[in-house]
Amino acid sequence: MNLEHHVVSPPVDKRELLDDPGRLLGHISRRLFNISRKDYVQGRAALRPESTSSAVLLLIGSQCGENGPGPCLILNKRSDKVRQPGDICCPGGGITPALDGVLSKMLTLPGMPLKRWAYWPRWQDENGANDRAVSLLLATGLREGFEEMRLNPMAFRFLGPMPPSCLRLFRRKIYPMVGWISRQQRFRPNREVDRIIHVPLEWFWEKERYANYHVSFSPRIQGRGNRESDDFPCFMFESEGRRELLWGVTYRIIMKFMASVFEIHPPDPARLPVISGRLRRSYITGK
């Protein structure tokens, strides 16, 4: 490995980083840049947004709402007016090439998120065409974040891209863009979002929050996967007095982030409790 261009992260106690936002953000940025170099620069993956691609924002903030101070994930709970109602997800959506193409050029102007990203000059030098792809994906995520929850793009600090994940039921590739929200504490959800969810990062060290989600499918959904039921890893937490579940692609994105940045891995699935659920026709139709 050529160490000359590799950003080395000094040894740290990962959980202690949660008490020091400056060190935390520096650590996240370094780890994500090293991951993206491996996946995108060295050819193990490609940043190639297509018609079936989406961009989402994995948002981290310093205010955990009802859970007090400390870094947390800021997520959306989908409303019953859209597909996948009730799911916890990252803000984001499909690419609108014309509009997002224009917005992507603005992101490289002075004071804008890409221009403020510490690794943007090196990303441009090493990535070639991928610099245009990451700007397009980030523009898509920020536009969708504004539409869904009135996210202020000027309060967003870009920390780096993550490798894509795939939706199983909807055949879509999702590109996560990680960012820090420094000032904005209030959001205004649109009709697609039931409410904003805050999940403290420190909860992911608590093994009792992990479980297996056994899901049975209605006949309409069975036809998509040729199976009556399936098992998914999940993460349990409480929000506004209700139990919530992280599962599916959002769970996979978050756990990939936690493993890459904090070296956190879920417990052995064979030792975890089982939670049962059912997906009905409305899950894929939104009706």
UniProtKB/TrEMBL annotation:
Single GO molecular function: metal ion binding
Keyword annotations from UniProtKB, A to Z: Hydrolase, Magnesium, Manganese, Metal-binding
S-adenosyl-L-methionine as UniProt keyword: no
Family matches, as CDD domains: NUDIX_CoAse_Nudt7 (cd03426)
Coiled coil: none
Cofactor dependency: Mg(2+); Mn(2+)
Name recorded for this polypeptide: NUDIX hydrolase
